[in-house]
Amino acid sequence: MLVKRLLSVLVVTGFVQLAHADTAVTISSPNNNIQLSVYHRTNGSLQYAVTYKGKSVINPSGLGMKLANPQLALMQFDLSAVDSAAADESWKPVWGEQSSIRNHYKQLLLKLSDRSGSGIRIEIVFRVFDDGVGFRYIFPQQAKLNHFILAEELTQFGVTGDHNAFWIPGDYDTNEYAYYTSPLSEIDASGGGLAREISTRTFFDKNAVQTPLMMKSAEGLYINLHEAALVNYPAMNLVLDKSTYTFNTHLVPDAVGNKAYLQAPFSTPWRTIIVSDKATEILASKMILNLNEPSKVPDASEWVKPQKMVGVWWEMHVGKSSWDYSGGQVGSQQASRVPHGATTANVKRYIDFAAGNGIQGVLVEGWNTGWEDWFGQWKEDVFDFVTAYPDFDVNELQQYAAAKGVQLIMHHETSGSATNYERWMDTAYRFMNRHGYAAVKTGYVGRIIPRGEHHDGQWMIRHYERVAAKTAQYHIMLDAHEPVRPTGLQRTYPNWLACEAARGNEFNAWSVGNRPDHETILPFTRLMGGPMDYTPGIFKIKMSTYNPEKKEQVHTTLCKQLALYVTLYSPLQMAADLPENYEARMDAFRFIKEVAVDWDDSKILEAEPGDYVIIARKAKGKNDWFLGAITDENARTFTESLSFLDADKKYVATVYRDADSAHWQNNPEAYRIEKFIVDNKTTLKLKLAAGGGTAVSLMPANAEELKQYKKYKK
């Protein structure tokens, strides 16, 4: 049931006269922990500042826009009116980490006009939540000019000192970096290290970082900077002025250096500042979702179904098979040949495994012509998305999957040619409808066509939304790889289940891999904007399994791979390893079979960015709970209360834990499985190996189980 309260009044008494005739207006969060102040200076400039429980979060920081056409810096304004409002409502997502979300904020709206006499009117709206602040620029319908070319956004974020930061370099085309952890003063994207193993073509400033940016101050405040509702606008990077610890907005440009082409009325994305003195509250925040528009897909709940999948994918990354029909290995420096992966017989093997284990979907990559001549070619017409290789029988597999109760998932690699994909979308989606494909995984590897555009520029932002809207039209669920980082648009397009947009698990198969702390940082950075298709569930940790000469490995224990199904949220979760590797360890695979992908409730139990994350979640429509705990390279022990369980129930706790001898590097596949009876008064001890994790299923116990298993004791 929707409960909503909205009021709007003209604010006059909210202004405070400051020295030199400056004026200021302040507004607080509903719980009064956060205070926003907006300053209108005598020279017409605008600044804002944010405090949390009396501690400064954002020092007075500038607001404004720089236009290329007309050539004008919108930095000095006359203030015509200030409105305030408040809202308190609850809404139900189609899927998510909880079944109901509260949207509770106070709002401040400033109506402004350019002081230079151009006649341009602009509004800035601020919303203050208990967990942070969001603000955006609005250009209403103008009396004269309504078309603008944006040269830059002049928003600043002046933080209060040399905070510890979790960051990746500013880049227009990729998010697939290993995270650096350093004080702000040591940000230097031109340096060496893991991040530089990707050779970016669009590096623009050594002090530039991407959002979401996670920081922790010396005073113990956790601060996250990002954006919400990124639509028809370039993505925001941040360039740090180390002399003042002020971040200046840098928008991704187009081929000629312009940032955006805009027509009034329009609104920019929301700039978001999430803040708390508890790391767990950062992860629990739903502010970014609340700042997005409600669903534009009215019937989504009827056909959008969160699910798990297996697929013809990991075997290509480990070198067992090829995307290419001729057997060429992508990126290989040798003329080695391996079998083609997407054959009718091989896909049937995956369908059989999925059907036998309650897995709803099977992803198939390399099924369509074009893979022999696609990588890094900057060609426009590589793929047509409907022509299968000779050894992939579309009709036979459609019938076989349907008979087994399994849905095939289509793969559309565009090789960066978005123009080609847009020409083919209707044809490709009709093909999917005819052949029973309910979901598509898109890919944007390579330089973007139109030439000169970037993955994170305005043209591609519009493209991603067009794909989301078009797939919704055809009742197709979407999983986008190599796109811009998410900003909560899954609320507006619930069929947009997941994105990659970060350094995923596949890097462990053929590179130096992801450090053990990587998955403890992702929830505070990339996942702040939306779910990630990280592809967890690797059981064969060392790549020497497939080639004795390979030294690569996944930088976790097997049990940490299980825990990731809880700590790295996604409504589309892949059991990424090979069927034979799961069949060899079906006792551990049981957790993947049972763990939910859609939730009624989520409890962030403990968290510290870069160190550990512990989350418990309640399955949608059930009394089953699942707990995941992960750590970095350090072994850790936690004691967790199960007070979130129902008071009148007993549960069977199945604990999948690292063996006492387990270690991510030396003994990653050692684990133990134990069962106990627990209730909401139980305190569970979790012992995590270095680079390890613990996964726990908590299911209501029946009479037989109450007799069979002992009560848990620490």
What attributes characterize this protein structure?
Beta-galactosidase, Chain A, domain 5; globular; 14 helices; alpha+beta; TIM Barrel; disordered N terminus; eleven-stranded antiparallel sheet; 714 residues; seven-stranded parallel sheet
Report what the structure shows.
- The strands form seven sheets. Strands 1, 9, 10, 11, 12, 15, 16, 18, 19, 23 and 24 form an eleven-stranded antiparallel β-sheet that branches. A seven-stranded parallel β-sheet has the order 30-29-28-27-26-25-31. It has a six-stranded antiparallel β-sheet with strand order 32-33-34-39-36-37.
- The longest helix is centred in the middle third of the chain and has 17 residues, at 418-434.
- Among the domains are: 6-290, Beta-galactosidase, Chain A, domain 5; 306-437, TIM Barrel.
- The chain is of the alpha+beta class and 714 residues long.
- It has 14 helices and 39 strands.
- Helices cover 16% and strands 34% of the residues.
- The model is unreliable at 1-20, 192-200 and 331-335 (pLDDT under 50).
- Strand 2 (15-17) and strand 3 (23-28) form a beta hairpin.
- The chain is globular.
Task: Report helical residue fraction.
Answer: 10-25%
The total of beta strands comes to 39
CATH architecture of the domain at 6-290: Distorted Sandwich
Number of helices: 14
Query: Which regions are unreliable across 5 or more consecutive residues at pLDDT < 50?
Result: 1-20, 192-200, 331-335
* Structural Rg: 26 Å
Mean pLDDT over the residues = 94
Please report the distance between the alpha carbons of the first and last residues: 42 Å
The global form is: globular
- CATH class division of the domain at 6-290: Mainly Beta
Residue fraction in strands: 25-35%
> Helix- and strand-based class?
alpha+beta
